[in-house]
Request: fold
Amino acid sequence: MHFKLENTGGPAFKATFGGDYRGAPRSLRFIVTATDQNGNVVADPYPNSTCFGGLGGSVNVTTDKPFYKSLPIVRYLRFEKPGAYTIRVHHDFGWQETSERGFPQGSIVLHLKKPSKKQARELVQSWLAERPYQGNTWGEKSRPYTDFSQIRFGEYLAPLSKEAKKGNKNAIVGVGSIATPEATRLLIEIVKPKNEHIRKIACPQLCMRLPDPYLTGELGKRNIFEDGRKEPRRWLVEKSWRKKFGADIRKIASEFLKDPDKDWIATGAYMMECIGTKSDTPLIVAALNREVKKTLSYELRTDIYPRPRGACMELQRAAKMMLKRGASVPENPTSPGESILFLIAFQDNTEFRPKGWMETCDRLLESDIPYIQENTLKVLPTPMPRLLQKHLVPILKSGDVDASIEACRIIERDRLTDLKESILAVLRMATEDWLFRAADNAAFTVDAKYERIEILVSRLDEPDMMFNCLDALKTIFTNASGGGANSNIDIPATARLIKPKWQTFIKENKGYLEAGKTLSLPHPKVTADMFPEGYYISFNDGTSWPKWNN
Reply:
């Protein structure tokens, strides 16, 4: 559907668009609603969508140059039956709405008809023959195209199935958009044959309609940035999942769990966390045995946190669900997989404290697999038992990033001031962002205030450390609550320029800082030239400092 903003007469006016789509299924500043002929509101397929901004800009709308935006209407409205629908669209345009003058609104009446079998077949054929869509042209109408992720109507399942079974990606995605049990059965049949190309396309479509415990709150997010899209997935599960599919899914999952590839193992684990039973626990433990050992060789990912560590994260989520469904727990674990199962039970069930549990944890903290050490540290009670504290320093010295992070967090949590020097040693060397922050937080908590500040200032000119150190130094300022920076600068040269200024500042205010006192910005002792141009510190009242000319 084409949205048109036009100037019907008079001087040009400005309107802004964009900044509302990154990570979202559509442009969120467009508000699209619809009612059917009976006044019933059409559901939004993606309510509460996450968005991380995106490119945007302003346009001048003149009498001879309207602005167009082509909207994929099925990403705003979930039509589930034929009929007449009144669709209304508006946008804020970057303008201020008043009680006298609201935002302009466009409307249209759309008639949806149920296709005959012949029409459905011909439409699918034409859709599959389309050339790939290259995206919208700014301010212009886009050409019509098929969004296979939004087909939805069951009438198109049969004509899609033939090409889907052959591995046509668009056809498989189209099947995945149809919320019926018949579509689920077809996806299962597509996944069953051991065709890796087809499986890689079809498995995500099948997994979206499984009864994920995340959707009911039994499991949390994998990381803070994950958009689980609960509402559309709940709808899809309600409409398309049936318990009778469980046996086939478990069989497929069992096969995946035995695969050497970590991605297929993770897929199998996800399937089991959705519909597995306690009898599937040995498969989960066996897969954990292999994957936990592989963490010794997996490259450390820096693009996501918590790190999935191959298939381990998904396997642990599956193990958690097996325990919820009645799986037994080994009280004296003897393998990596059993150890992880023990630790999950220890964390989730406060009544699970078998005889000798502390000795078991002591043994796990001595493991030659840092991943087991890391997971043991995560579940220990507060405060950490004295018997087990002896492991913290060796773990901090081990060089394993994630195990060291957990050790730092325990030192922070329990305020273990006798480990101050060990924490400061980590803070002097840490380059990985999460370890640096964990060490910095611990150093702040164990009263290494001035030593911590000295280290942060000394590292300002190290590669890729300037912004991390400056953000950590905000604790000096009472009213700092956030901020931002301009990274389009010569960072190494800037760091060399500001470091001496910071060194002078902390030397002149050593006694004040050693006492743990803070300054309120703006302050005469703190000058803008101690920061890169464009760097700012925000305050709770919405203002910020320093003020830059640009």
Summary: The longest strand covers residues 83-90. Residues 332 and 535 are 53 Å apart (CA to CA).
